[in-house]
Amino acid sequence: MIVITGASSGLGAALAQLYAADGKTLLLSGRNQQRLTDVAANIPHHPQSKIALAPADLGDANDVSQLFATLSHPPEMVIHCAGSGSFGPIESQTPDAIQQLIQNNLTSCIFMLREAIARYREHPVTVVVVMSTAALAGKANESTYCAVKWAIKGLIESLRLELKGSPMKIIAVYPGGMATDFWQTSGKDIDTSSFMTANEAAIMLKQALMSTAHGYVSDITINRA
After folding, report:
1. In a domain, 174, yes or no
2. Is 163 among the domain residues?
3. Distance between CA atoms of 17 and 37, rounded to whole angstroms?
4. Which among 76, 81, 80, 79 is positioned nearest to 167, based on CA atoms?
5. How many domains does one find in the chain?
6. Please, are residues 84 and 185 in contact by the beta-carbon 8 Å criterion?
7. What is the DSSP string of the chain?
8. CATH number assigned to the domain comprising residue 104
9. Of 99, 150, 157, 225, which is least surrounded by CB within 10 A?
10. Residue 70 φ then ψ, to 5°
């Protein structure tokens, strides 16, 4: 079983396509039931793949708990793609937009990791947290977005220390620009014609997530050409 959050669009939806093609059992989560249903309907049928849908607001701790409670056994992997963007000069960012950005990115990630670790600390579960290259360098007009992504990076590095000796792994992913509807919903007018497609990024990430008995790639940066 692979759990994918933020699976209703973009990278999450592209990863669902790839893992379903491998015959994996998937639990797809997102805030919008209809969009999740559309993603599942567009995944080509594979005789071994099973797909379940779990709409959830990961900024709500109860929703996160209920999401994991639907699993009858520990998942092989949790890929956390959920998040949102909001950009502009700091003085133009409204308090509501800032709070929503924190909720959709940082709070949701804290709740997800809190619940996953509480349940699976003693299990060989791999948790993949997709952030952004904005977690690695400051960017003009992305101050609050960078702030929440940097906070998630610190969260991961701290939790890795707490999990020392545990079979559970946390992998940090820093993708560059992707041509998805993320930019439209974030309100940033940008030319994405030279950006990676979500499918391209998903292919590279899936390959990088391959591990061996004694090793894995812990931090993955996916830059656009």
Report:
1. yes
2. yes
3. 13
4. 76
5. 1
6. yes
7. -EEEESTTSHHHHHHHHHHHHTT-EEEEEES-HHHHHHHHHTSPP-TT-EEEEEE--TTSHHHHHHHHHT-SS--SEEEE-------S-GGGS-HHHHHHHIIIIIIHHHHHHHHHHHHHTTS--EEEEE--GGGTS--TT-HHHHHHHHHHHHHHHHHHHHTTT-S-EEEEEEE--B-STHHHHHT-----TTSBPHHHHHHHHHHHT--BTTB---EEEE---
8. 3.40.50.720
9. 225
10. -75, -15
Which residues have C-beta within 8 Å of that of residue 58, sequence separation ≥ 6? Answer: 5, 29, 64, 67, 82, 108, 109, 111, 112
Residue with tokens 């948790």: 127
Residue 135, in any domain of the structure: yes
- Dihedral, CA of residue 192, residue 195, residue 199 and residue 204, to nearest 10: -160
pLDDT score for 186: 55
Residue linked to tokens 């805030």: 31
CB 114 within 8 A of CB 60: no
Amino acid at 83: G
pLDDT tens sequence for the chain (225 residues): 999 999 999 999 999 999 999 999 999 999 999 999 999 999 988 889 899 999 999 999 999 999 999 999 999 999 999 998 888 899 999 999 999 999 999 999 999 999 999 999 999 999 999 999 999 999 998 999 999 999 999 999 999 999 999 999 999 999 987 766 655 555 566 766 678 999 999 999 999 999 988 899 999 999 888
- pTM: predicted TM-score of the whole model, two decimal places: 0.93
213 occurs within a structural domain: no
